[in-house]
Design goal:
This protein has 26 helices and 22 strands. By secondary structure, the protein is of the alpha/beta class. The protein has five domains: 67 residues, no CATH class; 93 residues, Nucleic acid-binding proteins (OB fold (Dihydrolipoamide Acetyltransferase, E2P)); 115 residues, no CATH class; 36 residues, no CATH class; 268 residues, Ribonuclease Z/Hydroxyacylglutathione hydrolase-like (Metallo-beta-lactamase, Chain A, 4-Layer Sandwich), CATH 3.60.15. Strands 13-12-10-8-7-6-21-22 form an eight-stranded mixed β-sheet.
């Protein structure tokens, strides 16, 4: 049996580094429990005194490194401002008619993501741009991933929005980053000269992780089939390089130790070529320790090598310990060490070559180890992921070798074309396999993401199942694995008996989710963008797909009692079609106005195809739920408002939600004309919370209306840097005059209102504080 004296040391270092990072309370508790377990392990296994001492020192060293790097790594967000920046173009991310997106290295040394008007400048060009420099977003809605951390792992520090290229400047001084950018641009050009798209982009993704040029539909299919990892330079790709180098050196009868040293140099050289991003660095580190172990006569795939790599990362890159990419990488490697040999043993009776058995075992181990994390991070389970990876992964190494051969033979055109032609067949196989599997019935499942403790329980159950299996306790092994899978697939959700209303940050739009004490869900508007003209598609729906649908999934919502559309403009209707396609909806409440926008009409068509009943509430209608929620509608009246500044806005659905003593008024985009008509009806508008109408524009929220509502809190759903100047100074002045505590989604992110229905039982929180 393999001795694992370093496992407790590496785990202690990682736990110490993670404890020094800003993590959720549950994760902190799990980390403390892990520290306790590994200290207990050293005692119960009667490890030597020096091991116990090293475990304690590793914990302290990890915590010290985490604290030091946390202080230096966490920078204050950049105050968004318009400025001029001179930078050198590194990579073209996107090039559409009249718009471009690229990354560039500023003269000050920061790598920036740029969205610019006009055509993309060439890679390597030094340019002067003018645009709005800003930090990437912290999570602005509950459960959202941290965009800053994701981009930091790619090495990108900030973004420049609305940029214009002002001038071409003399080239910057040579640097490794710029040299690599030019090499990648040259390689891309050579690949595209002989490989059709999307094949050239797939190879670029395999070789150095550049996948921005892939068609969005194909990129989504890679994601849905669980094969997107082949487009990210990491363990698979560096493993191919290590295997190729070791095989060649073995054929040349090079002794093991020098061969391992050469292989280590080769994988670090390849990691450097790929850009030396964190996933590649992490993979190179783990493979290097495995090769060192192999050079010393130990098992390359061992817990000790795993632990050394873990400890090294904890000490030198502790900020990466709490990232999703780190969790995926080490879950993958840990599963291979845990399950690789066992799965290969199960295949011994199958008449397959040893290399194929190894590939099957490693692919299966990887999927078993990482699927709970991919489900939680990407809100996606791919039932056919194992099949897709079995079809695709064995081909990746060959396509990488053929692409490298094509680049090496650039000056010998016939040979370069020969390698490209051979590669086209294999790349065609990859695309066909991914497309076919993505087209299968039930090819994806979108789960409620399991909490951290449930994923930890799955890992414990998996380790326990392997332990029982090795000791022929097969029934207990199956039971442990079943329990672990169940906790991830159907995680127990916390019970909240309060009313919960979340005003999502959906930009210059409205999107509100109401969750009642008994678990009913109402969605009032669903984000989007204001549409210009009719068209055959709409970017408004992307807001619903990117923000509203993921929020509902993370909240554990599978069934929606009602979608309530205040009015048909795209900045309110944008998310309705995606929500209707993703969830079972009982009914669709609409204002009943005619409008030609694509998002609205797509929502109507989707509702018809999903057989969702349409209802048209009018002033005086009252809805009641079985847990005491009442919705009283004040608008629109049977006779619509006509001849106003904006009739569609003024005929928005307006209603009062009441739960015991709590009251909140929802106003859509109703303006002053609608407010006056509601006042004239003599309605009791008193409310604790007001959702301010029309994003706080100057055409509503009159003093008379605000006085009648007399809220304690007001919430304005409004986009940052919007072109309309919302919220209007006059509206803010009115709210201030009535001493109303005001929240804005542009400044506060999502705003959450909770109430137990009692007097003074209202609680309001926001994602961002200033």
């Amino acid at each position: 049996m393999e001795r694992r004296p370093l496992l407790s040391i590496g785990m202690a270092a990682a736990a110490g580094a993670a404890l020094a990072q800003p993590v959720d309370a549950i994760i902190r508790i799990l980390l403390l429990a892990a520290v306790t377990v590994f200290f207990a392990r050293t005692v119960l296994r009667r490890e030597p005194e020096r091991i116990r001492l090293l475990v304690a020192l590793a914990l302290v060293a990890g915590a010290a490194s985490g604290t030091l790097h946390n202080t230096s790594y966490t920078e204050a967000p950049i105050r968004a401002h318009t400025t001029r920046i001179s930078c050198t173009v590194l990579e073209i991310a996107q090039a559409d008619a009249g718009m471009s997106a690229f990354t560039c290295a500023s003269d000050e040394g920061r790598t920036l993501s740029v969205d610019a008007a006009g055509d993309s400048p060439p890679v390597g060009a030094r340019i002067l741009i003018r645009g709005r420099l800003e930090s990437f977003d912290a999570p602005r809605n509950p459960g959202e991933p941290d965009e800053r951390a994701i981009e930091a792992e790619r090495g990108i520090a900030a973004r420049v929005a609305g940029a214009h290229v002002l001038a071409r400047l003399p080239d910057a001084r040579p640097s490794l980053q710029i040299a690599l950018a030019r090499i990648h641009a040259w390689a891309t050009m050579q690949l595209r000269s002989r490989l059709a798209e999307p094949y050239a982009s797939i190879v670029a993704g395999e070789l150095w992780g550049a996948r921005a040029s892939l068609p969005p539909e194909l990129r989504a299919e890679f994601q849905e089939t669980g094969t997107v990892h082949i487009l990210v330079t990491a363990g698979l790709h560096l493993g191919v390089v290590a295997l190729l180098v070791m095989s060649l050196l073995r054929a040349l009868t090079v002794p093991r130790a020098p061969a391992c040293a050469i292989a280590v140099a080769a994988i670090w050289g390849y990691a450097l070529f790929s850009g030396l991003h964190l996933p590649a660095t992490r993979a190179a580190l783990m493979i290097s320790f495995g090769l060192c172990a192999h050079a010393l006569g130990a098992r390359a795939r061992s817990w000790n090598a795993f632990a050394i790599a873990l400890g090294a990362l904890a000490l030198f890159w502790p900020q990466s310990i709490v990232g999703a990419s780190f969790a995926l990488s080490f879950s993958c490697v840990g599963a291979i060490v845990l399950l690789g040999d066992e799965l290969k043993a199960l295949l011994e009776r199958v008449a397959l070559p040893e290399g194929v058995k190894e590939a099957l075992a490693l692919t299966a181990a990887t999927q078993i180890g990482t699927w709970p994390l991919t489900a939680a991070i990407f809100l996606l389970v791919s039932p056919y992921a194992l099949l897709a990876n079995l079809l695709v992964v064995p081909v990746v190494g060959v396509t990488m070798i053929l692409a490298a051969a094509q680049l090496a033979c650039t000056t010998v055109a016939p040979f370069a074309q020969l390698f490209a032609n051979a590669n086209s067949w294999l790349l065609g196989w990859i695309v066909a396999a991914v497309h076919t599997i993505a087209s299968l019935p039930r090819a994806t499942y979108s789960p409620t993401p399991a909490p951290a403790w449930a994923i930890a329980a799955y890992d414990i159950a998996l380790v326990s199942a392997v332990w029982c299996w090795k000791r022929d306790i097969r029934t207990l092994a199956a039971a442990a694995l079943f329990l672990g899978v169940t906790l991830v697939v159907a995680p127990p959700l916390p019970v909240d008996t309060r009313l919960r209303i979340t005003v999502l940050d959906v930009g210059q739009a409205d999107g509100i989710v109401i969750q009642t004490p008994a678990g009913h869900t109402l969605v009032v508007d669903a984000g989007g963008k204001l549409e210009r003209g009719t068209g055959t598609e709409s970017s408004a729906e992307k807001v619903g797909e990117r923000i509203v649908v993921p929020f509902l999934r993370r909240a554990g919502i599978h069934h929606i009692d009602a979608l309530i559309l205040s009015h048909p403009h795209g900045d309110h209707a944008g998310g309705f079609a995606p929500v209707l396609r993703a969830f079972h909806v009982e009914e669709f409440a609409d204002s009943g106005q005619r409008y030609g926008g694509y998002a609205y009409n797509d929502a109507l068509q989707t509702a018809r195809s999903e057989h969702v009943p349409m209802v048209y509430p009018r002033a005086g209608a009252v809805w009641r739920t079985d847990d005491g929620i009442t919705l009283t509608f004040f608008a629109p009246q049977v006779q619509f408002i006509t001849g106003s500044r904006n009739d569609i806005n003024n005929n928005s659905l307006v209603f009062l939600l009441q739960y015991k003593s709590f009251r909140m008024l929802f106003t859509g985009d109703a303006g002053a004309e609608a407010e006056q008509r509601i006042l004239d009806e003599g309605n009791d508008l008193r409310a604790d919370v007001l959702k301010v109408g029309h994003h706080g524009s100057a055409y509503g929220s009159t003093p008379e209306f605000i006085s009648a509502v007399h809220p304690r809190y007001a919430i304005i759903s409004v986009g940052r840097h919007n072109m309309f100047g919302h919220p209007a100074p006059s509206t803010l002045e009115t709210l201030h005059r009535f001493e109303i505590q005001t929240y804005r989604t542009d400044e506060n992110g999502a705003v959450v209102v909770t109430s137990d229905g009692k007097l003074n039982g209202v609680r309001i929180s926001s994602m961002l504080t200033f």
